[in-house]
Amino acid sequence: MKKITVGVDVGGTNIKLGLVDPQGNILARSRLNTKSYILDKKKLIAAMSQAIAQLLKSFGLNASVVKGIGVGLPGLVDPLRGVVIFLPNIPGWKNVSLKSYLEKDLGIPAFLENDVNMITLGEWKFGAGKGAADMVGMTLGTGVGAGLILNGALYRGPGFAAGELGHIPLN
Question: How far, CA to CA in Å, does 11 sit from each of 39, 67, 133?
């Protein structure tokens, strides 16, 4: 039975990885220096895949116990197509099919989303917003961002990814 989820937070300085159980407990963590690969997206994707595989191996796990990989990225993402549209802090990341690369390399389903939306989802499911029908998640770092849960669903404004996405239910 697949029980573990791999969480990946892609940042301009570091990529943070974790293995998470169904209750939201972090079982293991690792980190990858983004700057070492920042000029070559293929090397960065390969390093990310290797870091995920190594994290699983170091915990004595293989892909068969992984439900999926969730990747949060600091920019515009099309979750339906699994494409990074644009990352402002990592050069060369325009229209990158990260989902397909990860799934091909690791044989594990992958899901991409904006990092602030991912943080908001995590807080809604396991943290400060647990049980709320509506909530706002905000971040302040290199940039400022916000995610919005309305009526138990992640809200995406009109026009995102050519109108493909709107109100995404979280069940």
Answer: 14, 23, 29
CA–CA dist 158, 63 (Å, integer): 36
The Cβ-side half-sphere exposure at 61, using a 13 Å CA radius, reads 25
How many residues are recorded in the chain? 171
Q: pLDDT tens, 103-122?
A: 999 999 999 999 999 999 88
pTM: 0.86
Closest CA to 106 of 29, 13, 8, 15: 8
Tell me the C-alpha distance between 90 and 74, whole Å: 9
Beta bridge partners of 59: none
Nearest to 29 by CA among 46, 51, 47: 51
How far is the C-alpha of 17 from the C-alpha of 132, rounded, in Å? Answer: 27
DSSP three-state, residue 150: strand
